[in-house]
């Protein structure tokens, strides 16, 4: 776990220092051997052949014969090392993002589209595998090659080397021009990739809506616009990329001609040996090959930089959720709000100056028009969000002083829309409490009025729930959500319109069950149907984030205020 703290690529590489060292070692050997061969050729042509030295001849031939084996095997080891290092970096970055996400508050992670985050997790591979294994390490190797070759060439014939080196700045400037032209395109490409991932995920989850509203044409138009724009950008970027390659290729072809012509003249004048020219004619293409590799690596790095930035954008977010050590203490269930105010984006007050105390064992109904802050109130108790003003107490202790695990093991929340994994029913139930026994699971399902339904399924508890539980009806999902919470045996139960999708009969049954199960525990039920909470010890009436009324059904009816109006609207005929 400790190594998860390091977030910079440098720190991660440091953890892999053995492999890095090994890689560097084999790289140095590799460069040495590649430099050796042309030199051997030179000695062969200039000394062994004219002087008819047989031992030298065979010795040199042996070196020439062995060097390809050495070069390739050293290269293979080096590649393997860099592959490991790159893979390690990729894996660590992925882990870091996943871990970071669980340490963010909903206000932060809901700013990103889910597809965009998925894309960033995916593109970690581009840092480790592409950037490190296939780009940076080869670039270092080729830079070493360039320096080595230049050194050896200088040693052999400095005049010729200067002629060659003279070409390099010109090439550099030319390629730089095109690279600079490509860079803004690359930024746009990355930006578009992000948006495309975000849109694609949304499109897939909204497919039914697209079909329902007959909007396929409109979506296709939008997609085509996208696809065309993206392709155009890619083509432009590829054009500049190809042009730089072209320039280097051209330089190589032209350069080889110059080397040979200039070399021939030098040989005629007796300033150069044939062996040197042969060596040069091998070194020179090698040099350009390396140059090209460095150039490509540079382009790739430019291409990856914006993606790295996107990954760091998430990694550098401060941890909003600090996991404290657990205490496992059982709470009694007293909840107190002390002048609590909260808004999602410091704009409207979703909860304004709210104060109340709920005693252990109380059954509280929460009602109010949509958007009045009922769900937000429950989320605040769960500490998904932090109030901007005021404090929330549980058993007289600020909820901020509980560890998240402790707090959430005491409170069960049945959300408005139940999220289920695309796994078996059993998996989803055990997700709520991994230690639950089969007997407990069955019992909780029975109490949640879902056991019969599950047992009638062909695969029973092993039935796989479709993605986002689409194979289940809203009511079935709600009842599974209730079973999940029952399995957790919380001291405090929060329910957000838990039975809104059930028929009146099932609802009444379930209500009676829940009341029995949670006898003596603190229960907060948000209800749209007012009859659901009619028997509550107290009913809280919310409007525009304010607690405007509080009391039993009879008291509130007597008040003839908002609750009275809402009740009469819903049950006019009765
Ligand atoms: P209720 O459950 O009473 O219908 P909510 O608590 O869900 O109401 O919402 C209260 C207000 O907060 C609404 O005006 C809603 O638009 C806003 N709201 C809810 N969730 C978010 C969110 N994640 N980001 C920004 N605003 C939100
Ligand atoms: Mg709500």
TrEMBL record:
One of its GO terms (molecular function) is ATP hydrolysis activity. Gene3D superfamilies: ABC transporter type 1, transmembrane domain, P-loop containing nucleotide triphosphate hydrolases. GO terms for cellular component: plasma membrane. It comes from the Bacteria. It is found in: Cell membrane. Residues 335-569 form the ABC transporter domain. CDD domains: ABC_6TM_exporters. The chain crosses the membrane at residues 20-41, 56-77, 162-179. Keywords: ATP-binding, Membrane, Nucleotide-binding, Transmembrane, Transmembrane helix, Transport. Its main location: membrane. It is a multi-pass membrane protein. Residues 21-303 form the ABC transmembrane type-1 domain. This is ATP-binding cassette, subfamily B. The lineage of its organism: Bacteria, Bacillati, Bacillota, Bacilli, Bacillales.
